[in-house]
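FIELD: query
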Amino acid sequence: MESTLAASAHRPESAGRQVSSWQLSVAPMMDWTDRHCRYFHRLLSPRARLYTEMVTSAALVRGKQLRLLEHSQQEHPLALQLGGSEPHELAQAACAGAAAGYDEINLNVGCPSDRVQSGRFGACLMREPALVGDCVKAMRDALAAAGRQVPVTVKCRIGVDEQDDYAGLQHFTETMLGAGVEVLVVHARKAWLQGLSPKENREIPPLDYERVYRLKREFPQLVVVINGGIGTVAQVQAHLAQVDGVMLGRAAYHDPYLLARIEAALHGEPLPRRAEVLHRLRPYVEAELARGTALKHISRHLLGLYQGEPGARAFRRTISEGAHRPGAGWALLEQALAPCLEAA
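FIELD: result
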């Protein structure tokens, strides 16, 4: 299969400088990065690459739950993250994702939850790099046969359990390159598969950014995206001096305006007013309400918009207390916004 990144991996940013299409992205986060969240994030960041929540290949292929692929055109560039370990099934799921219009298929080799392990996917697959390589190759071959030029990428950890040296990550990376991977997203923590909850696995294992930097130095042909514990514009800029891209996780969810600040710092975008962002969301909210979506499913993603700003507490309280009520609509968001505008 020819490289799917030849024309899309980098785009001109300024004379003599190339910027990766993976320069900024928002991580796939279960129960958080649904289509409503992604639409909202797109209003804050025109360029960030957005990722779905993980979707299992079994749900798409055996369960025929193609509704899980629903998204809006405004969300692009948009990646579908798949979970699974059966090459043929993942190949079918990847083709379904490409047919639905996704710009990238990402394989989850980083999630440490018990539920994911029981299905033999996620971080436990770092112990089986050959199998991951087979999965990647099957997906790439199937997409090529279908005439779909969609990159297959992998998101992993720096190690799992006792596999905690650079040699293990190096071998995993070499195997991925052999399977045709051109973009590797690395969460700069190891995963403990037993004894820590998914939440603890995001916080307790120490971050080792230097290991990811070394990976980029030793595999310069690979697009390396770093993830884990990144929450400020300065941190993003520091990482981009070492690797090709930065993936934000919880910081982008709890303080979504951070995405706009990063856009401004990296690309000179004028910072939009928070109220302006919310008002630009109104047509989407009203369209979703008209099709029967409850306001609470959209508004829960907006709670951090005024994080750290005057009126933020009243903004959150008004939405949290009112969005679940029958008939809740746009007027509630205007009501929530009022104290913020008065305090500005």
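FIELD: remark
The longest strand covers residues 152-160.
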